[in-house]
Structures are given as structure tokens and as C-alpha cells.
Amino acid sequence: MKPYLELVEHVLEHGVLKENRTGTDTLMSFGYHYKVNLSKGFPLLTTKKIFFKSVIHELLWYLSGETHIRNLRKHTKIWDAWTSESKNWEVGKMYGYQWVNWEKFYKDKKTGLIKKTHINQIDEAIQLIKNNPNSRRIIVSAWNPAVLDEIALPSCHAFFIFSVVNNKLNCHLTQRSGDIALGIPFNLACYATLTQMIAQETNLELGEFSHYINDAHIYVNHIDGMKEQLKRKPYELPTLKINKKPFWDLKFDDFTLENYNYHPIIKFPVAV
To answer: Is 0.90 topped by the overall pTM?
Structure first.
């Protein structure tokens, strides 16, 4: 994963020391962008072990639209730091809820009453790709200003755009804030998986994943682990196989990672 290691090198060399809400300072770089060719292999880090099963469980949780992690916790605890049992493991209307249940209000023409409906942005994106692949409006947004004071964490990966070029599906993600040690590897694998799912659904080939990170940062207590990763030689990328089913019928067991070789895990503390 050369693009990821280049990101790490860039921030370690050019990053600016900055305070933030967590109390743990970061080295940060403004406006970093990279691309990955998804046809060259599944972009899962090999310079440390990434828990692929957690990536898939998290993505399926997003797609469920749930506003809690009670079901997700049966498989992975990666979201535990942002809620608690005393809160009934609620996180609010973030990420997945916005993806598949974006709230729309309208005035009923007959009664004059204000009513609410929901927009499944993922499904609308799939339909646009199928029926109008040249569209430049295939956008899914997780950033909803109306709920920022109600959710556990304002969406870091704010919105993403699909683009079809030469029968290939490309995905661009704009991220407001990216924890390079812990978050970015998961984000990269998550959106690569989602792009492959949608490419399969729409009979397209895999193109590129483009990633813009507004605040790309390494927490100061992650620096040693990041330097250790740079010493490690990357292995060949693995392959992701997805069973051929309709998009909304895909379950955890439909995803298989093949030929994943990796260096030992590096533990990083979570900054909340």
C-alpha cells in the first residue's frame, strides 16, 4: 500500500503540531489527497494486520441504518469508545442512518400537513449508476448539520461521489478528519468494499478510489508505531471475493478475503 505509506511519510516529515479536542496533540497536514487503483488488488494494509471481519461488520452496520451499536457489538467493539451501556449503546442518526434514511419533509397537498419521508441515498446512487452513468450527481452525504448536536461523533467521512468512466466505477471520498493510524486503513477498506459491491451490482469494472482528507493527522502517541510500519516491507495485496447476489441481499458470509499476508499488529490507543 504505497499511497498509504507515502501519506504517513508526508505527515511525519511535514506535519504541523496541533492541539485538538481530545487532549492528545497531533501532527497534521491540511488537504492531503491520494488515489488507489482498485483493479490492482484489495487495498488492505499489509504492514500491520487489519481486522477485515470488523471492516465488513462495520460496513454492513452502516448499510443497516441503525442508530445504535447493540448488534454491531456482537461482532466488534470498534465503536464502543463513542457510547456506553448507560446510553443503551445509542450513537444517533449518523453515517448509515444518513446513507439510507435521510429525512425529507414535505407539505401534503391535500391536508396541508408537514410529513416526513426518507431517502435511501445508496439505492438512489445505484439506480443513477444503472440508468444515467454519465451523471455527475451520484453523491451520498453523511454530513447533516441538523443532527450534529445529537450524534456521538460528527461524520469524519463526510460524503462520497461515484463516477463511471470507460465502464469502470470510481469512488471519491471527502473526509473532514482522518486518524491515519486507526481510522484511514478502515475507511480505505470500507469504501473499496462498498465500491466493489456496487460495481458488481451495476455490472461495471473496478476503477479508482480517490481520497481527500482535509485534516490528515497522526496522534503524537502513535508516532513510534507509524515509524515502525515504515520499516516494514509491504506484501502483495489480497483479493476480495463477493458472492453474486443482489446488493441488499449481501450478508457477512458473502465476503471472502483471499491471500492476505500481513506483518504483526501494532496497537494504537484511541483518542476520543
So the answer is: yes
- Multiple choice CATH, 2-258, 3.40.50.10490, 3.40.50.300, 3.30.572.10, 3.20.20.140: 3.30.572.10
Instruction: Report, as residue numbers or ranges, the catalytic residues.
Output: 156
Task: Express each pLDDT in 171-210 by its tens digit.
Answer: 999 999 999 999 999 999 999 999 999 999 999 999 999 9
Instruction: Delimit the domains of the chain by residue range.
Output: 2-258
Count of CB atoms situated within 10 Å of the CB of 141: 15
Of residues 171, 271, 240, 151, the one with CA closest to residue 211: 171
